[in-house]
Every structure is written in structure tokens, then in C-alpha cells.
Amino acid sequence: MKFTFSPLGLLLLVSAPSFALTLEQGDQHWQIDPDTLAIILKQDSQTFTINQGSLQIDGQTQQATQVTQSAEQATWTLKPSGVQVSAQLQQGLNIHFRWPSAVGIERQAPKALRWFDLSEASTQTLLLPFDEGMRVPTDNPTWTRYLIDNHSGANTTQDLKMPFWSAQQSEHFISYQLLNATNNQLHFSEQQNKLDLQAEHWFTPLNQSEPFSMRITVGDEMLAGAKAYRDWREAAGLRVSLAEKRKANPQIEKMMGASHVYLFGRDLIAVQDVRDWWGLRDWFWRSEFTPSPELQKELASLKKGQDWLNQYQKKLLVGEINQALNQKFSAAPSSIQAQYQAAQQRKAWLTEHAGAYLKPSDQWGQGLAQPMISTLQQAGLSKLWLGLDNWMPAFYQPQVVDSAKQAGYLIGVYDSYNTAIEKGINDSWLTAQLPDRMRENCAIEKADGTLQLGFRGNGFYLNPACELGYVKQRVQDILHFGRFNSLFLDVDGTAMAREDYRSLSNETAMLAAFNTRMQDIANTPNLILGSEDGNALTTQGLVFAHGMETVGFGWTDQAMKSDKQSPYYLGNWYPDEKPDFFFKSAQVKEPYRSLLFAPEYKVPLYQTVFHDELISNHHWHSDSLKFSNVKAVRDLRAMLFNTPAMVHLSRDETHKNSARIEQLKHYQQGFLPLHEQLWDKALVDFRWLDKQGQVQQTRYSDGSILSANFSAQPFKLTGGEVLAPHTLMAKLSNGETLTWAPMP
């Protein structure tokens, strides 16, 4: 490896196997042991332990040879591995490792480069972007146990949402950015009663020509690492602001200040669409369909004038009618056009045969129905993103989609191209009904020769570079028949990078393929594209993402998953039109309540990087109303970080004073004026106003200041204003002052 130095640079050739290097720039003096990669920084009369010396390659310690050095650069070769290393001071300390081209790697025997070992003794806090941003005291045993159990072995593309972390030593923050974030793992452990962190990179047959590079910087604030990463993305040409995106697509204006709403239910009619229950019951008994034993048990003996149908019986009857129609006019797994035609056939047939017992067919629908859109308008909700988890409701009632757009709303549907399953396995899982050629030819092949199983072990995961022509056509068909002006593309935004030995594509290529696919779809005129998470490495074309502000947790916790008597039980995944999992209120148990929701453990790392580039929200498993005992904290933090609320709705919410509609109205009162002012501004400062982190403040690039009091006590701000408990106060640069507090 060669460097060209300035005439003033002193070039040394050192033959000894170990040599303490010192690189100097300004007041920074970086001392590096090239054998072990132990690094010490001396700056401003302070000494920081940047990295403990524990370098190993393929499980072996190394010795440095062929060491060259100037004032700001050094190179050496490690033996016995032959890995070439360079270090350079340029906006921090940049270190690059290159695998020797003459040394091959077997596909089932990748080579591990263990390069990082946290100085746990001198580190007080870790800042980790496993979500919006975690602040982790390294002497907290609960945090240590949680990270060991839940994040040890994490990768740095999908698990770590942005490829950096920061370690606080005294008043300084040392940040470690992975310039190429693929094929890495983080390992947490406990050492000397403190949290420890190690990192390693894996060289494989598919990535061995790519150097592994990282950058180490030092700052004096919690946001220093996020700001450095934002600057790096800007310099690399990766950042596309919302303002730039709006110039290309003015429809983005509709996202400014919009709350996000998922409308549940995918079948033709709802209980609310029936006007003559006795007539409908008698018709179903006379029809070509056969009532199930359960329905016969519940309804056969009831007599008009003597009995009445309870809510369960009504839902049972409507459910069987919908199921019978779905079977009579099968929609899957045919083409999108065939699914649209099946939807229209069901609607026409039911209108002809049972219309006398139902309300007008243009009013039918479960979540997506004209009464729902009318209710949202009557409630004064001016800006909304509406989402469906299935396109069939729009195929039943495309005119309702038009009505939503005329109301000024964005309306989109969930779609995905990452798992393909065989026909007949689960035909209601429409997105996974992909052509056989995709399932057979696009499945990812692992290093051991087996195929990568798909979501929850079903089918196979697919390479996103495969069959782009089919993907583009299906997307266009969905948008055409569903008349959507938005699309939610599942998984693509999560940076779920894998190696594919079938196509010989590495993780870097897979990330590029996700970005290419999203950008191609986003280029559709007037379409607003969103995806899952919005991880830093897969954001091209995205305007919004769901998942960053509340990530999934406790997947294996029995109290949350199985114990129906527990206050922490999340709920069943049924009924389809209003699943308890999404609508049932639950409490968050410890330690999740403290670690994942307490204000003192949250830092707006993601918003520092992406606030004016991409609108982030909760994962759809956990809308703003899901968790009763942390609702106020989540709501205040969303306002402080200027991110929208998410509220799930079902057809039984179709009156403007329903509890969930009232919550949406209240969110709009706070978020709409804030986001319309701040959507194109950077989050530039975050600080605690008290010592416990219960009163926090964010500042944006226009000078707007938002202060939130998470505590139960009033707090006096420096300007003399008293900030009430559980309240946010915003002083906007346009002169407006806004005060907002969460509803119970």
C-alpha cells in the first residue's frame, strides 16, 4: 500500500515487529500499537483510551511488519494473516484493513477480524442506535443483562439502525463509525461489573476484495457521533433532504404535520353495513351457502320478535358471508387484475342477492369505507397518512380511495417482495404470492448451500436484485387498480443485508439492490413511498418509515405473548377487522418500561441525522395508544423529537367523538403546527435541563426550541416560564409559542 506525503512528512521504515506509532494533528496525539490496535488519544491535557489492545484475526494474535509512518499517516502489514492496515488522520482517525488478494477464503470458513474492545473502565455511558437512540450507563446491571440477552451478536446493517456508536469518557464522546457497515457483529458482555462491547468484521469469499474501514472521532456532546455521521453522509452524496424531495414531488406537502393511521379489515362488508339482520339471516339460510355448525348453533333457533342478535352473533354471520364470497370468487393467487375483478364480482353478486338487507353498496367496508373517510373529515382532521395492510379493501371500493385523496389525505397499502411461498400454503398472504420462478430462482443461497427461509420460516427470502421487472409491473398494477397515492414497502428499508451465494452477491450489493428498488418505485409520479424502519443504509426514495420510534421487544416474554390474564399480554391476532394485538391496551413490564421508554435513556440520534430527510414513526405493532403506562412519555417524546403519532382505526370508530378519533384530533393540535414549521429543519441540539433527564430540550436549525417536562413536578425554564408536569412548550422561530400535554 502506497501513500504520497507532503515534503514535510517524515517517512520511516520500521522493521521491528512492534512499534508504538504516534500520529499528530493539531492538539491531537493518537498513539497506536499496530500489533494489538490499542489506541490512546491525548488531547487538551487529557488522555482517552480509545481502544483496548485485543486485535485478533482468525483467532490469532498478530505482529506488525513493514511499518511506515509520517506525521498523520501510517501503514503496516499484520502477520501471519497478511492483512494490510493503514491509519490516517482526516476528520478523525481513519483505519482501513485490507485482506491479502493472494489468500483465498472458503465460503464456510470466513475470517474474523476482532478489532474493537471497549475500555469499560474509563467509559461511563454508551450511546447506541438500536432504535431512535439508547443512552446506556455502563454500570447499570439491568442494561448490561438486557444488551447481552437481546443485542449480543447484532449486525450493523439491520440491528444497529445507523452504523456508529459513541462512548462517553468524562465530558467527551468518542464515536466509532463503520465506513462499510456490512459483515460486522457486536458482542456485549460484563467485565469488572460493567458493560463491555467488542466488535468484529468478517471477511468472506464475497467481500474479501472490500476493505474494512472505520472512523473514530471525538466530540463534546451526546449528539457528536450522529452529527459526524450526518456530515459524512452529506459529503458522500447520500443525503437527500425532504425539501429536495418535495421539489421533485409536491405531494410530499401532504405529509407535513400528518398523523399516521392504519385502517384494519380486509373483507367486503362490516357489521355496520347491515340494516335488516333477520332478513340477512334468513337469506343466508336459503342461499347456496351452508352455514357452519357454529353459526347454526348460534342463530338457527332465534325467532324474530322474540330474540335479538348479540354482537358476537352479528360478527359471526357477517364473517361467514365474507368467507363464502371469498371462496365463491377466489382472488388468490392470481394476477392483481384478477384480484380486482374478483373483488368487484363479490360486490356485484352480494348487491344483487342480498342488497335488500344491506345499506347501499358504496357505503360498505371494514376499515376502508366511505363512513370512515367522512368521519375523519367531520372531526377536522386535515392531514393524514392512511394505510391498509391489504389492497383488497381498495379493490372493493376504489371510489373511497378517491374520496380520501379528495379530502387531502395520502392513502397507501402494504406491499412486500422479500418472501415467496408456494401456492396453497396461505393464499390470503397476498404479497407473498409471487411467481414460481421468483421463489425458485431468486431465493437467497447461504454459505452452507441451503436456502434462506422466509418470514417466520415460511417460503424463502429473495434477493432484491432479482426480477425487478416483475416487481415494477405488480407495483404499477396495485397503484392502478387501488388508486393509491402512497405505498408502504415492507422490509426494504430495514437494511436486511445477506450474502447470496447463488448470485455471488455480497451484503454491499444487496443493500444497493434494496436502494435501487425503492428509488425505482419512488420515481412513480406523485407517489409517496415509505418502508420499515428507515435504517441508515437503505433510505433511497423514502419519505417516511415505520419502526424507528418504537421497536419490537419482548417477543419471547410469556407474560406478553401467551398469558391472557397478564396486564402485559399484547393480545390475539384476531379478529381480522380489529385484532386485539393492535387495539387492546397493554402495560409495558419491567425492565422494558425503564430501559426502552424512560426519558433519561433516550437520545435523538436518528433525528439528528434524518429529521429533515425522512419522517419516522413507531412500528405498526405499537401505535401511540398501545401501551397505557408509557403513553404520556411516548407522546411527549414524539413532540420533542418532532415525529408523528400513529393510531389504528377500525370501522366501529366511525363517529367523530370516538376515543381514538379524539386522540387523533389532539395529536393534530400539537404536531401539525410544529411539523409544518420544522419539517425541513435539522435537529441541532439536545440537552437535559435537570440532572435526572426528566426535563429535556431540543433545538432546531431555525432557532426553534422545544422543551418537555416528563416529571410530575413543574419546572422553571431559564426565561422564567413555568413548564407544567407532563407538558411540552415550543417556542418557534416564527414567534409562536405552543403548549401541549398528552391526553390520558
Number of helical regions:
19
Q: What is the 3D form?
A: globular
What is the CATH topology of the largest domain? TIM Barrel
Task: Round the Cα radius of gyration to an integer and report it.
Answer: 28 Å
Distance between the termini: 63 Å
Share of helix, binned: 25-40%
Average pLDDT confidence is 96
Structural class: alpha+beta
Largest sheet: 10 strands, antiparallel
CATH class of the largest domain: Alpha Beta
Instruction: List how many beta strands DSSP finds.
Output: 35
Task: Count structural domains.
Answer: 4
Catalogue the unreliable spans. 1-19
CATH architecture of the largest domain: Alpha-Beta Barrel
User: Widest sheet: strand order?
Assistant: 1-7-8-9-10-18-15-14-12-13
- What portion of the residues fall into strands of 2 or more residues? 15-25%
How would you concisely characterize the structure shown here?
By secondary structure, the protein is of the alpha+beta class.
What does this entry look like structurally?
There is one protein chain. Residues about 1-20 have low confidence and may be disordered. The strands form seven sheets. The protein has a ten-stranded antiparallel beta sheet with strand order 1-7-8-9-10-18-15-14-12-13, with helices on one face. The relative contact order is 0.09. The chain is of the alpha+beta class and about 750 residues long. The protein is globular and about 95 Å long. The protein folds into four domains: about 10-235, Beta-galactosidase, Chain A, domain 5 (Distorted Sandwich), CATH 2.70.98; about 240-265 and about 365-420 and about 460-690, Alpha-Beta Barrel (TIM Barrel); about 270-360, no CATH class; about 695-740, no CATH class. Helices cover about 25% and strands about 25% of the residues. It has 19 helices and 35 strands. This is Glycosyl hydrolase. Keywords: Hydrolase, Signal. GO terms for molecular function: hydrolase activity. InterPro entries: GH101-related (IPR021459).
